[in-house]
Every structure is written in structure tokens, then in C-alpha cells.
Amino acid sequence: MQQLLSSSSSSSNPNFTLFSNPNHLSKFSFKIPVLPLLSPPRCSSRDSSTQLLDHDDRARTNAAVPDSKPVLVVRRPALDVPSDSETDAEAAPSPLDLGLAEFAKKIAIFEPDDGDAASEPKEKPLKVNLDLALYRAKILTRNYRYAEAQQLLEKCIYYWPEDGRAYVALGKALSKQSKWGEARAVYEKGCQATQGENPYIWQCWAVLEDKMGNTRRARGLFDAATVADKKHIAAWHGWGVLELKQGNISKARHLLAKGLKFCGGNEYIYQTLARLEAKASRYEQARYLFRQATRCNPKSCASWLAWAQMEMQQENNRAARQLFEKSIQASPKNRFAWHIWGLFEAKMGNVEKGRKLLKIGHALNPRDPVLLQSLALLEYEHSTANLARQLFRRASELDPRHQPVWTAWGWMEWKEGNIATARKLYQKALSINSTSETAARCLQAWGVLEQRNGNLSTARRLFRSSLNINSQSYVTWMTWASLEENQGNSVRAEEIRDLYFQQRTEVVDDASWVMGLLDIIDPALDRIRSVLNLDQASQQSRLDSLRTILEGESGKNVDEESVSNDMESDTGFDVDAFCIERLSLDPSKLQVQMEFSPPPPVKRSREKVL
């Protein structure tokens, strides 16, 4: 072989090629496929045969071969050539080892980067890892482990920048920490990464701007969400609720009707429309819309709960109780259902039942401060101030940034005569957020405290500050007018009353929109027009509607007296049995749990008030 190669190299023919002699091809052509498969060629850097494979010789070889015949090209190994003493087993890994190595690279969810975060990932993990990481981030956020969730979501954005779910989850986690600027930057980055085609990011960004008070920008973002996907029901509903807050009732109805037109029946839109009808005293229309909402989703606790609140305001107590029961059955752990039902029973005089319902809600939602706040007020009214104080303290430990807890606690201390403590608690509530609706109520309560203690100038400043936040508060205006009238300033008191009537926003809501909405809901049913009668509903129709609610599937008739004023009647729903069967919770042991099971600790620092 070496003799052949040496003779070929000594030839002076410039057109000579390595494989030009067909007689010699049969002698060494069988070795060509063996070299790259089994082992690298056993040659050293000093071997004279390697001079034939350098760049110049390959160029001469390729120039002499016709274009019609393929030419085999031999590549040098990139690594150092092993010596002759090494065995063939150590020369190259087996195909099985190569396969396992490739599989091992895909097992880990995230590979550690090389320190350059701006560069593209060398190898993207499998898509299933994104779903697992998003679920894990959701659990971490629910457990208030925001730092770990943020780190995980940032890795998701790094590996899958085109997926909008990571941006939405990270923005919500930052919003819960009141990091509005960072959340806005995340949403903006997500819209750019998804080229503006993800409506969920636009909608979450709009909700954030609405919370920050940027109403005009929120409208534009809701509009962008509907442009990205006109069937995105959350954008239509959120935009409608925004217009309701601004008093634009007609525009809100128009947006909600568009949501029904493009997306079909939706429980949230039906529920919002029903509450609008209840606010306008069109209760039959409201009941019809509530019924549509519950048909869209029988498990919608919010629809049953809103319907129950309307019947509660109309003093249809039996119907309200039955609707509260349906809301609990739809969502057994819903804190709002247990809370409002407990307040309803306490208002009806069933203090023990109301206390039990609030305790059940707290046992199911141990991190909710609102349930403990209402329970503290109930205990203060029907028990002792010390027990109420302990519940207030526990609620403030659960969420130190929950303003209503500090305001209610300050009100109780004022009633107990602890004026200095009440001022500190009011000041603590205002230090959390001085521009919210809760802050306006806190300033009004603080103004009443200063008025009762003779600090009239301070009380006036507090009332004025409260009205700067919420100029539509009738209670604040009339309290200020009463202060001036008690001081003998009748002219000033009348001016304050006139100012209220001059600046208040009157909302004119007519019923003409209902006829247009009927064509969207169900144009095939003519009977809807008779159900949604635009005239005032008669007493008999109200009783017929309530009788339908109460009879249900049992077919049991209910007389008119039990429908209208049955406050103490039993609907047959056993709360204790329901808790034991569905929730594995014994209501008889709730008192022991309330005393001996402290709430989970929170990593936030709490200012000691007392």
C-alpha cells in the first residue's frame, strides 16, 4: 500500500489521480468504508502518507476527476489521533451511548445557561416542561413564594418567549406584590414578543392600568385585546365593567351586548346585566338574566350569590336562603358565599348560625382576613371587645395591607374610648394606600372621631380629603353639612348640600336597550318579550317567579305568605351534614380550631400598633 502511494506521489504527471488506475481500485477500495465506521485511521502526524491528503493534493485530485463521477473525500479527525497502543474499544463510543447521551440532555427541565442571558438557548427543552413549570409557578404564587415563582417564570420566558402564558402569570404575581411598574414592563415585553396577537396579555395589562387609575389607557388596551381576538369574552366584560365604574351605562351595555354577539352566552355578562337591571329596579328582567347565567354554568357560585343578594335586598328571605345554599353547593369552598350568607343570617337575628357560617368559611379559607374581620365585628356586637380585638389582630397578621381590617379595628377602638389607638389604626390604614375608596371611608370615619372630640378644623380637613377621593359620597357630604349646622353655620351647611347636588353624577338608564338585546340572546323565542316586560312587574308575577325558584324540581307548592315574609322557615338544607360529607369538616369542632390553630405565618413585616 505504501509502495503504491509512494509511486503515485513520485509521478510527474500533473493529471495523475489517486483512483485513476482501475487495477489498483480493487485492492484497497474495500478499506474506505471501514475507516470512518470502526476507528480513526492509524497514522501519526509524521507519516508520509498523510501528505497526499493535504489541501493542495485534494485540489489536484478534484480537478482531474470528471464532474459526472462522484469522488469520495476523506476527512481528518478533529481530535488528536490516538497512538497505536490504544485498543479499538477505546477509539469511539457505541451508538447506544450516543443515544443515551442525547436522551439525558432532554430530561432536565432547564439547562444552566453560560451566563449570557441575551443569547438564544442552545437547545430548547420539551414543551411539556413549560406546562409543568407554569403549574409549579401557580402553586408557588398561591403559597406566597413570589421570588421562586418569579425566577421560574423568567426561565419560561427565556426558553419560550413566544408563549404568552408566562407573561400573564408573571404580571399577576408582580401585581399581587404591588409592583405595578415591573408588571407593566412584563406585559409590554409580552405584547412585543407575541407581536400583539395574544389577547390575554392585552386584557391583563388593561386591568392593571385600570387599577392604577389610568382609565384612558385601559380603554385602549381593552380595545387592543378585542382587536387581537374579538371572541375574547374577558376583554368585552372587563371593558364593560370599566365603563360602568365611569358611569357610562349605555356604552357598558353596548360592550356587553357585543360580547354576547361574538362569544355567545356567558355567565359573567349575564350576571353583570342582571345586576344592572336590579339596580334600575327592573327585577323581573334581572331574574331572567340571572337564570340565564346559571343555565350557562350551574357551578357558577358568583351568579347564585349575586341573585341571592338581590332577593335579600327585596326581603325575599326564603328565596335568598335557597340561593345561598345553591351557591355553597356549586362551590363549597368559596369564601364570598360563606361570608355573605353569614352576614345575612346575623342580620336576620340568627347570630349563632351566622357565627357558624363565618367560622366554616374561615376554616376553609384560613388566609382570608375579611372573614375574620366580619367575625370580629359580630363578636364585638354580641360578645366582648377583647375577643374581637384578638380576631382583628389575627386578621391584620394574615394580610397587613388589607385596609378595611385596620379601619374596622380603629372604629371599634373609638367606640371603646381608645382615641389614641384609633388614630394610630386609621393612620396605618392610610399609609397603605391614600387614594383608594377604602381610604375615603377611613378619612370620613376619622373625621367623625375628630368631630366628636371637638377638633372641628381637623374634622373639616379630613372630610375635604375624603371628598377629594370620592366626590360622590352622600354620607360624607351630609356629615360635613351636619357639622356646620351644629355649629350654627346654617348658610354654610346649605352651601355644602347644594355642592353635593351640583357635582353629583346622575346616571340615566332607560329600558330601551332590552329590546335590542333580545335579538342577541335568543331571536327565536317570542315569549322572551313578554317575560322582559318593560312596564313595572306586578305583584302576582313576582310571586310566580319566586314560586318557580322555590319549587325547583320537587314540585312543592309554596303559598304567597311563605314567599313574601318567611324569615325563619327551614329550607331543609343541613349545613352540618353538608360540611361533614362534602368537606370532611366537623362544625362542632370549629371553636377548638379557632382557638388553637394559628394562621400560617407571613413573611411580611407587620407594624405593631398596640
Please explain how this structure is put together.
This protein is mostly helical and 610 residues long. 65% of the residues lie in helices and 0% in strands. Helix 16 runs antiparallel to helix 17. The protein starts with a helix and ends in a 14-residue tail after the last helix.
Please summarize the sheet with the most strands.
none
What characteristic shape results from the CA principal axes?
globular
Our estimate of the beta-strand percent is under 5%
Indicate the radius of gyration in whole angstroms.
38 Å
Class inferred from helices and paired strands: mainly alpha
Oligomeric description of these chains: single chain
- The average pLDDT is 77
In whole angstroms, how far apart are the ends?
99 Å
**Share of residues in helices:** 55-70%
Query: How many distinct beta strands?
Result: 0
Number of helix segments? 33
